[in-house]
Specification:
Oligomer: single chain
Distance between the termini: 22 Å
Shape: elongated
Number of strands: 11
Structural class: mainly beta
Radius of gyration: 17 Å
């Protein structure tokens, strides 16, 4: 796909453009819920979560919105929240699952600090997906296979703005 994550701009930028044009902007009610980490092997675990938002859109593989999702985990033994690093980058990396529901894809940037969930095909409307899975790197996240771990997922709606001239 060629997207490297650096071309994403927050929905706030789109909102400023919308306000400047005196139009009405609607929030998309992004919700990321039911996050949990399940041990897989000595080096990795699976982060599982559900996601939904109201106004997802994609147009001709050029313009689209996406949800930036990142995770925090806290071992019950010490109580400090840690940022979860994913195991691999790319589109739908090995071991990831796009879940049950709408047709989406997962894009993990090279820094592996989180992932984008985006509509797979052209269209607009609500997205609701259950049990999306991403593989996390336990050592890079400061976590161990054994022991109880609490997880939280955070999401921010983003808009992809391609390089070069564009119209809003």
């Amino acid at each position: 796909m060629g997207n490297n994550g650096t071309n994403y701009r927050t929905a706030a930028a789109a909102l400023l453009v919308a306000l400047a044009a005196a139009t009405v902007a609607r929030g998309s009610e992004l919700r990321v819920t039911n996050a949990r980490i399940e041990a897989r092997d000595e080096k990795t675990a699976v982060v599982v979560f559900d996601i939904e938002w109201s106004n997802s859109w994609r147009y001709k593989d050029v313009n689209h919105d996406a949800a930036w999702v990142f995770f925090k985990a806290r071992p019950e033994s010490d109580g400090a929240w840690r940022h979860v690093k994913l195991a691999q980058s790319g589109v739908n990396p090995e071991g990831c699952d796009t879940g049950d529901g709408a047709s989406v894809e997962i894009f993990v940037p090279e820094d592996r600090a989180g992932l984008f969930v985006r509509r797979l095909f052209d269209g607009a409307g609500a997205i609701s997906v259950r049990n999306i899975q991403a593989v996390c790197d336990l050592a890079a996240s400061g976590l161990e296979k054994d022991g109880e771990v609490r997880a939280r997922a955070f999401g921010v709606e983003m808009v992809y703005v391609p390089d070069g001239a564009f119209r809003a």
